[in-house]
């Protein structure tokens, strides 16, 4: 149900995504992340179009970490920051981070070793139902995504919403 | 140490990728990236330039390419998606337009008899896309038939035209800049594809019909042509 992808640029670095619905303890999970008990990024899945979007953000985060060019304090906050089309950090957290009342959450982990133990630890903390990561597309709030990333109608005729989003994420440093 | 090692991640990755083209300023590779077929364009340093100037120019090319791609996409012009940019190694990771060929190869491989009539729809398409690009005030800076890709759709369907290679692009509303952009294409087109004057006229005609501001641009194109001719008579 989870999705693990080893980053081609950073052999040994794996990105694992897990999606949970009907989550009842978002506030508690957030607290765990703040305290470092959850070593991962908690993302609001309604702002995601596709798991590929998360891979793009995670790859960029690992690259920035390696180059010493992170804009935030940790790899996980950097992933959330990279999802946002703007350079405003608190705005990024508000839009893309998990909030206390959320009933769905996408968790991103970056790890070297085999993921089975990490997955088990995490699933144990979430009171919710795990679903295949691909289902994130059914949770997308299209109107909100289009508005936040300022996707034009012209653009939607010639490419997908995912294309539009990924381009803005990749280009935001020079906009 | 750790830093130095990790900074080499991209060169290391590219050393195992398939080299498609070694140009004067950039190497173009094909690889899989985040699970997708990807083209990586790596701009390298030029030994004869001053290191600081070189770094600045290379950086600027990369930035210009990224900005123009986004600007074109916003206007609904087909350009490859940018997946990732690394400003340390000056590498851009782009969507590979799978199953495409350059417009150049397409024209070269079409039988000479068909070279004009059969290619008219393509010439018209190019004219329309360039009109849309210029109406957005994007000047490509290096228009050639190698910097356009054609992805053939399934049988009967119209193929899609992509613009690529925006490293020399910039933003300008001046008819003169747009005229020069077309002049560069005209020179490249006619020298790469001899005996296609009529075809290129079709391209310009469809440009003129599609662009809202074409009359000033075409006028400038004519001026630039004259200047070019005078210069070559003198020199
Ligand atoms: N996104 C892409 N999908 C498929 N093929 C591509 C793509 N981008 C480039 N190519 C192929 O690689 C060739 C070279 O690419 P490009 O024109 O971007 O680089 P270049 O001409 O070496 O750059 P420069 O002119 O800046 O030196 C193209 O002519 C095309 O055949
Ligand atoms: Mg080229």
From TrEMBL, chain A:
Signal peptide: none annotated. Gene3D superfamilies: CGI121/TPRKB. It is found in: Cytoplasm, Cytosol; Nucleus. SUPFAM superfamilies: PF0523-like. Keywords: Cytoplasm, Nucleus, tRNA processing. InterPro entries: CGI121/TPRKB, CGI121/TPRKB_sf. GO terms for biological process: tRNA processing. GO terms for cellular component: cytosol; nucleus. Transmembrane segments: none annotated. Belongs to the CGI121/TPRKB family. PANTHER family: CGI-121 FAMILY MEMBER, EKC_KEOPS COMPLEX SUBUNIT TPRKB. This is EKC/KEOPS complex subunit TPRKB.
TrEMBL record, chain B:
SUPFAM superfamilies: Protein kinase-like (PK-like). Residues 14-235 form the Protein kinase domain. This is non-specific serine/threonine protein kinase. The lineage of its organism: Eukaryota, Metazoa, Chordata, Craniata, Vertebrata. One of its GO terms (biological process) is tRNA processing. GO terms for molecular function: ATP binding; hydrolase activity; protein serine/threonine kinase activity. Its EC number is 2.7.11.1. Component of the EKC/KEOPS complex that is required for the formation of a threonylcarbamoyl group on adenosine at position 37 (t(6)A37) in tRNAs that read codons beginning with adenine. The complex is probably involved in the transfer of the threonylcarbamoyl moiety of threonylcarbamoyl-AMP (TC-AMP) to the N6 group of A37. TP53RK has ATPase activity in the context of the EKC/KEOPS complex and likely plays a supporting role to the catalytic subunit OSGEP. Atypical protein kinase that phosphorylates 'Ser-15' of p53/TP53 protein and may therefore participate in its activation. Component of the EKC/KEOPS complex composed of at least GON7, TP53RK, TPRKB, OSGEP and LAGE3; the whole complex dimerizes. Pfam families: Kdo. Its main location: nucleus. Keywords: ATP-binding, Hydrolase, Kinase, Nucleotide-binding, Nucleus, Phosphoprotein, Serine/threonine-protein kinase, Transferase, tRNA processing. It is found in: Nucleus. NCBIfam families: arch_bud32 (TIGR03724). GO terms for cellular component: EKC/KEOPS complex; nucleus. It comes from the Eukaryota. Belongs to the protein kinase superfamily. BUD32 family. It catalyses: L-threonyl-[protein] + ATP = O-phospho-L-threonyl-[protein] + ADP + H(+); L-seryl-[protein] + ATP = O-phospho-L-seryl-[protein] + ADP + H(+).
């Amino acid at each position: 149900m989870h999705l693990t992808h080893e980053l081609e640029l950073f052999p040994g670095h794996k990105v694992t995504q897990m999606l949970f619905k009907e989550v009842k303890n978002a506030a508690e999970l957030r607290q765990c992340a703040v305290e470092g008990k959850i070593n991962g990024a908690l993302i609001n899945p309604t702002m995601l179009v596709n798991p590929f979007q998360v891979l793009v953000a995670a790859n960029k985060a690992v690259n920035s970490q390696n180059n010493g060019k992170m804009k935030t304090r940790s790899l996980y906050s950097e992933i959330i920051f990279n999802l946002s089309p703007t350079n405003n950090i608190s705005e990024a957290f508000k839009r893309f981070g998990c909030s206390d009342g959320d009933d769905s959450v996408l968790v991103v982990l970056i790890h070297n070793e085999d993921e089975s133990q990490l997955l088990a630890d995490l699933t144990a903390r979430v009171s919710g139902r795990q679903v295949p990561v691909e289902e994130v597309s059914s949770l997308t709030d299209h109107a909100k995504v289009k508005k936040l990333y300022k996707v034009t109608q012209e653009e939607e005729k010639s490419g997908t919403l995912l294309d539009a989003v990924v381009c803005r994420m990749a280009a935001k440093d020079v906009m | 140490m750790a830093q130095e090692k990790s900074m080499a991640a991209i060169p290391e990755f590219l050393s195992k990728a398939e080299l498609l083209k070694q140009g004067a300023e950039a190497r173009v590779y094909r690889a899989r990236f985040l699970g997708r077929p990807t083209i990586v364009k790596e701009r390298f340093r030029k030994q004869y330039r001053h290191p600081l100037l070189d770094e600045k120019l290379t950086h600027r090319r990369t930035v210009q390419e990224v900005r123009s791609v986004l600007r074109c996409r916003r206007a609904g012009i087909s350009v490859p998606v940018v997946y990732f940019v690394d400003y340390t190694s000056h590498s851009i990771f782009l969507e590979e337009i799978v199953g495409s060929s350059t417009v150049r190869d397409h024209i070269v491989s079409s039988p000479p008899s068909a070279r004009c009539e059969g290619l008219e729809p393509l010439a018209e398409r190019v004219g329309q896309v360039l009109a849309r690009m210029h109406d957005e005030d994007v000047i490509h800076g290096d228009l050639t038939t190698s910097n356009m890709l054609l992805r053939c759709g399934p049988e009967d369907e119209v193929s899609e035209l992509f613009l690529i290679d925006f490293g020399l692009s910039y933003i300008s509303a001046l008819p003169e800049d747009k005229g020069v952009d077309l002049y560069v294409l005209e020179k490249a087109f006619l020298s790469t594809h001899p005996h296609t004057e009529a075809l290129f006229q079709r391209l310009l005609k469809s440009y003129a019909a599609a662009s809202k501001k074409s009359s000033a641009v075409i006028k400038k194109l004519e001026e630039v042509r004259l200047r070019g001719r005078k210069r070559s008579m003198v020199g």
